[in-house]
Inverse folding.
DNA sequence: CCTTGCCTTGACGTCGGCGTCAAGGTGGAG
DNA sequence: CTCCACCTTGACGCCGACGTCAAGGCAAGG
């Protein structure tokens, strides 16, 4: 198949596919007319790339998975390098979740504090919550 | 004070402060020499900007907080527009946490599945764990 | 023959939040 | 007078993953 068809099957664009090729992730044969020529194994590569980038992997991080597939392994994560990326990524995501959770908690608190004055705009809750002079 | 001092007090750079000014977030007076001149209320603005961007707010999203402070309110979130941003941001963060959690769970599963073949490379665990032929 | 549609390469644009360099002004210390 | 540190404006660089436009080739259909 040609690049347009592959792009449509993979749910992406021809530009993205050429970009993957430029990054060395998706090598392409050429037909007599000089057009890029792909088969189903290439669709498989693109699917792997897309599903990984779709959950937050950088393109570079998909490389071990793609090379694993190109080496004939049944899945992209059948190789140690891929598993290593899994582990790094899992640690990153865990950390990110922790930080986002902390942010969420702070946002909830701040939101609760900031909403009160609008529901009771007249009565000040007596002077001194400990926030008036935070810096120095 | 001048821009270098403000930058140091706020823990940032002169370049960042000029950028904030260019975005209309941090207006600056000028002294006789044409130098930007700031006071403690400006430090307050920069502190507000930094604490918000530090937890993931885009610069544009800090605008209501900064304008709220400049309008003489005691805190950046004393205004309805700021509270509205809080709410939007909280929803975004909640959603982000959900998605990241889903990603984490998928990563854990995939990692568990991918690690097994390396821990038992020789003895197949009797034919049929459901992974040998996942696709087609 | 002309249009249409697919393909090619090349190259610049996008977004955010600055970093970094260039070229020059200003005032104080030695 | 020179050096130094601070300031000014202007403008290009960066990162990632492409979008978009330009200019052109190749084949099929009316």
């Amino acid at each position: 198949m040609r690049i347009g068809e592959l792009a449509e099957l993979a749910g992406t664009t021809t530009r993205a596919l050429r970009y993957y090729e430029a990054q060395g992730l998706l090598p392409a044969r050429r037909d007599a007319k000089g057009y890029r020529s792909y088969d189903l194994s290439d669709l498989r590569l693109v699917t792997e790339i897309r599903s990984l980038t779709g959950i937050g992997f950088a393109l570079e991080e998909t490389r071990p998975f793609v090379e694993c597939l190109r080496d004939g392994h049944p899945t992209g994560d059948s190789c140690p390098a891929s598993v290593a990326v899994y582990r790094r990524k899992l640690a990153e995501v865990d950390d990110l979740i922790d930080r986002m959770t902390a942010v969420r908690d702070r946002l909830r608190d701040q939101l609760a504090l900031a909403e009160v004055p609008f529901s009771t705009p007249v009565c000040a809750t007596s002077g001194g919550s400990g926030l008036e002079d935070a810096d120095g």
